[in-house]
Amino acid sequence: MTALQIRIIDGDTVTDRDMNADELAVYEAIQDDAKAEAKAQADKATAKQAVLDRLGITADEAALLLG
Amino acid sequence: MGANAQTSVPLFVANSVLTAAQQNISAATGVPVFATTVTRDAAFGGSNKVLAEGQLCYLESTDIVQYYTGAAWATVGPATSGALVRVGGGALSSTSTTFSNVFSATYDNYFFSISNLTSSSAGTITMIFGATATGYTWVSNRVTVSGGAANNATGSATTSFRMSGSVDTNPVALTGYFMNPFLAARTVYTSQDLTLLTDLGNNNGVLANTTSYTAFTISTSAGNLGGTMNIYGLALS
C-alpha cells in the first residue's frame, strides 16, 4: 500500500514526504470521525425519507408545509 | 546582523584609497542595509556620507525600505501597519498540507483564502491546529438549494474542524478567519462553505483549549489536495 503523503510549507521552503506515525495516527482518527458523522447523516436521511414515504409526500412538499 | 548590513556609508574625497571592504559594501547593497534605526542613524554624518533627501535604506529589524525626506525617515514598504499582511501560503498538495510558522505574536486574528480548491477523489476537507486532534466543536449551517430546508451538521469535541462538504476535481474556493491561534486563548474558526451545488452555508467552530499554535494542517478524506492557500495577519491597530 502506498504511504500517505504530506506537504510541509514553511515560508518559501516546501517539503513533500510520507506521513510519519504520529501524523498518520491523527489523520486516521480524523477519518474515523468523519465516517461516523457521515453514517449519522445517512441514517438521519434514511429516517427522514421513511417518514416522507409514510406520509406520501416529497421532500419539497414537506418543505412547503414547514416553510 | 545580516551579511549585507553595514555600519557606515563611506564618503570619498580626492586621493582617498578605496578598499576592497568598502567596495564590497557598495557592490553588495544597492540600498544600504542596517540592523536597526540606531545603526542606520550612526552610519550617516561625521566622516561618513551626509544624510540628505532621497537617501534609501533597508532595516532588518522591521523588514522595511525607507527613504529620507530631508527631515525624517519615511517607510516605502511594506507598511508595517498595513491592515492585511501575508504571513504564509502556497500550493496545496498530497493528502495533507501543513503550513508552519504562520501564527505569531504579531497578530491575533488571520484571514485565509483558498482558490481552486480540489480533491483528486471526492473528499471532505478538514483542518487541525498543530498536532491537536481533540476538542474541536463546530457547527455547519447549511441550506439545501432545492427547497431551502436546513441541512445542518455539528461536531462536539471531535478530531478536527470541518472546512467543507464533499470537494472533488471541480475547483471551488473557501475564505474564512482563524482567531486567537497564537494566543493563550481558545482558537476560533469560521468560514464559508460554498463547495457543494446542493447546499450552501458556513462553518463555525471553537477549539476547547488555550494552546498557542504556530501551524495548522489541512487534509482531504480521499485523494490529494489541490489549490492555493494564502494566510494574512490582521493588524492589531
Brief summary of the model shown:
Chain A has 67 residues and is of the alpha+beta class.
Number of strands of chain A: 2
Mean pLDDT reading of chain B = 88
Oligomer: heterodimer
Q: Class of the largest domain in chain B, according to the CATH hierarchy?
A: Mainly Beta
**Number of helical regions of chain A:** 2
Give the domain tally of chain B: 2
- Biggest beta sheet attributes of chain B: 8 strands, antiparallel
Strand order of the largest sheet of chain A: 1-2
Morphology of chain B = elongated
Main beta sheet of chain A? 2 strands, antiparallel
Q: What is the helix fraction of residues of chain A, given as a range? A: 55-70%
Strand content of chain A: 15-25%
What does this structure look like?
The complex is a heterodimer of chains A (67) and B (237). In chain A, strands 1-2 form a two-stranded antiparallel ribbon. Chain A has one domain. The longest helix of chain A has 35 residues, at 21-55. Chain A has helices at residues 21-55, 59-66, and strands at 5-10, 13-18. Chain A contains 2 helices and 2 strands, in the order E-E-H-H. Chain A is of the alpha+beta class and 67 residues long. The N and C termini of chain A lie far apart (50 Å). With 237 residues, chain B is mainly β. Chain B has helices spanning 20-28, 37-43; strands at residues 33-34, 56-59, 64-68, 73-77, 84-91, 96-100, 109-119, 123-129, 136-144, 153-158, 161-167, 172-179, 187-193, 199-207, 216-220, 225-234. In chain B, the strands form 3 sheets. Chain B has an 8-stranded antiparallel β-sheet with strand order 5-16-7-12-13-14-9-10, with no helix packed on it. Chain B has a 4-stranded mixed β-sheet with strand order 1-2-3-4. In chain B, a hairpin with a 4-residue loop joins strand 3 (64-68) and strand 4. The chains are: A alpha+beta (67), B mainly beta (237). Chain A binds chain B through residues 4-11, 14, 16, 19, 22-23, 26-27, 29-34, 37-38, 41, 59-60, 62-64, 66-67, and chain B through 88-101, 124, 126, 128, 131, 133, 146-149, 153, 155, 158-160, 162, 217, 219, 221, 224.
